[in-house]
Amino acid sequence: MKKGLIATITVVAFVAVAMIFSTAMVQQASAAAPAADAPDTVEIHSSVYTKYKQGPVEFSHKEHSETYKVKCAQCHHTWKEGEPVKKCEDCHKEKKEGKTPKLEKAFHDNCKDCHKAYNKAQGSKDAPTACKDCHAKK
Q1: pTM above 0.85?
Q2: What share of the chain is helix, strand, coil (3-state, %, to 5)?
């Protein structure tokens, strides 16, 4: 009787440990998936605008995520693990709507505030904050 109980407990414990380990591996893989699936470089432009004052912004997504260790949710602030990344224009429009800032302000606040904080923390001016430093010439 005791041998059967010990064997059953051992099997149950082994299965539980295997399930916990496999769940952790799946969560780790899904957390890494968005950055891994993203292109190396991204050009920020939107169909919200029919014309631009400045040219589009192109940046290295890979460098931001890998070198600077920017977490996905720092830029994709509504993103939840396991969900697809939404386009900024899904929520941010050409004009402010309620408490949701317009698309241009959302981009500028997110990028420039992060760049300014980086520069302050590093005691440098490496991260661009001027229009001409990010926007391509038209």
Answers
A1: no
A2: 55, 10, 40
